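At this stage, I needed to go through a protein sequence along with its fold in token form, as given directly below:
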Amino acid sequence: MSLSGNFENPANPAACRNYGASKARGSHLLFLDDDDECHLDFIQSCVSHLKNFPEHSFLLAEHLEIRTYSSQGDHQSALVDTTSPVSVLGDTFPPFLKFGMGCGFVLSREFFRELGGFDVEYSYCEDTELLLRIHFQGMVPYPIPGQGIIVHRHLETRRTGDMNTCNRVFELEKLVRSMDSSLQKSPAFHSHLLQHLDKLRSRCSRVDQFSFEGHN
């Protein structure tokens, strides 16, 4: 295995993932966050699936393990089903839209190239932006049986605090505006996204006082 870093724009996750994809040599891409881990059998399960269905360009494990850590370092684990539709206000939306690309999505390199990769205008919600573009093309991931990724959730991460929360609010508002006409066709996820935005706004008590990074 070779390691390569994006030293030109290391703080932008979208740019880093695009850089990694440009260096990859396989037919498919697996995206992971730096604090998550791949289950031992997941890659082999994907390889076996693609041998039988090489035309499948979008995969996701049926289950994720989410470990939530306390400040003392102990954690609670929950197994999450990625295939059951999410219900909001009497409507549903595909559950994969709730997850980030680091949760073990697999895309063919060709499909990723057709999408144009991640939009580097987004550095806080680049996952949501790309997954919405995929969703609006009518794509859903083919489920890979078993457990895929262990997602580690810590109370404090590198991208918390008022400034980061406010920048996330700014980007999500920008995303909602830019995709408004498409989001109207998916009212359940639109409602979910607006509810999430309200929660973020409530955590960013000084939102009006900030000059957002790169947007002032």
About this structure: Residues 162-178 form the longest helix (17 residues). The chain has a mean pLDDT of 83. The two ends are 41 Å apart (CA to CA).
